[in-house]
Amino acid sequence: MKKEHFSSPWIVKKDIDGFFGLGLDNLIQFILIGTLCQQVLGMPGEFIVRRILPGAALSILFGNLFYAWQARRLARETLRDDVTALPYGINTVSLLAFIFFVMRPVYQETGDVELTWKVGVLACFLSGLIEFFGAFVAERIRRATPRAALLSALAGIAVTFISMDFLFRIYQNPMIALLPMMIILLQYFSNIRYPFGLPGGLLALALGTLLFWTLSPATGPPPGPGLEGRGMLTLPRPAVQSLVDILCSRQLFRHLSVIIPMGLLNVVGSLQNIESAEAGGDSYSTTASLSVNGAGSILAALFGSCFPTTIYIGHPGWKAMGARSGYSLINGVFIGILCFTGTVSWVIRAIPLEAGMGILLWIGIVICAQAFQATPKRHAPAVAFGLFPCLAAWGTAMVDSGLRAAGSSFYDLGDVPAQGGLLVQGMLSLNQGFLFSAMIFAAMAVYLIERDFFRASLWALAGSVCAWVGFIHAFRITPAGIVPHIGWGTASSYALNYLLFAVLFLCVHLWRKRGGYPAPL
Questions:
Q1: What pLDDT score was predicted for residue 218?
Q2: Across the chain, what does the average pLDDT equal?
Q3: Same structural domain for residues 265 and 343?
């Protein structure tokens, strides 16, 4: 078939399932924004609805339209009707980091909501610049990085921050969430079709919502984030002057130790997700995909959002569902309408998260499985090795939440290496820059398995450099939380050990070249 004769529908039935999963994930981000900006930063609900959410929605609409078009173009070029668009939305990790480590210190110091918001806009803008310019060197990084190194970090995030987190939520509310979860898993594990071809996601969402409202107390379900301004027109408003003001202030340099690592992590994370898509059969341009991702974050900041966007983890899950380009298109339009009309709170209050969390659980399962299936079988130990920093990051988040719930924090523990079996130093050092650490762990392991000791040495050297400047393993414990410690020699003990790894691998490489290398066991 010739390209000019190839055509595919804009929306297929399975796009509805994909939309429920991606749309729900985006709604979760808006719930987090509404709740944390009010409770942590003291922002009025109307300010959030009028100044932050429209800009965030505009960036999501922009990105989803591009990635839907990109998928259709790839389908036309390859004459395939099974191409799935890259998922896209607000970056949860950056969202939490910017609120707690950039914006909250400003609010605690000044009590000025307007200044706090401007600093958040600055953080989003700078992160977008890093993402945009990083797009032009990311392809070289991708080619030099083993697939196991790129996918193992995603698998770690999938197991912990996606699957485990949502599984906990599901079992927290079993009467509402368990049956919808099994409707999802029944369809996708068994590959069955429900009567009349109804999507499993739609059935799960409808059943979960029905159970939620039926089993709620007579007083009604618990309220959502309580954002004012529902039902009013809230179109995006430019925030360029506010951005210029804050760029010219002393705030520009105060938070670079958080903004720069988060921007780099966004580039690496998006790069990993593009690699995940290629492993699933959809090969997209790295430069185009990442530059539009960065442009989306810049656009968000220019219209008042404090939260950068990213290419989402989960492409293989959406593809396994049968979603194509339409799910991205529907998601962008849906989020835009909700926020531009101020009706996002109505949807949040009407549809419980528990109804659709089974979809997100499935996404995590598929991503983790792909890390082992899409890499050579002999690289499985390397994938497993790359999981450990992600597990440490998740463990840190769990311990931090537990300490805060008890009215304490890591800061209150003091300088205690091991308290009650809690190995604070080791856990927090692995937590800091865990995406970089996961890649370095897995890449070194891949080249050791392949007996390519020279490349293993180069990756160990990269680990030494990252540790020396504080991209990995360097942190400070502050009353506001755990913050990165960027600087010269901030994790020198780790840097020295990675350097010794590099020397060791290089010595083995030279020994092998001289014929002294022993036979494999």
A1: 45
A2: 84
A3: yes
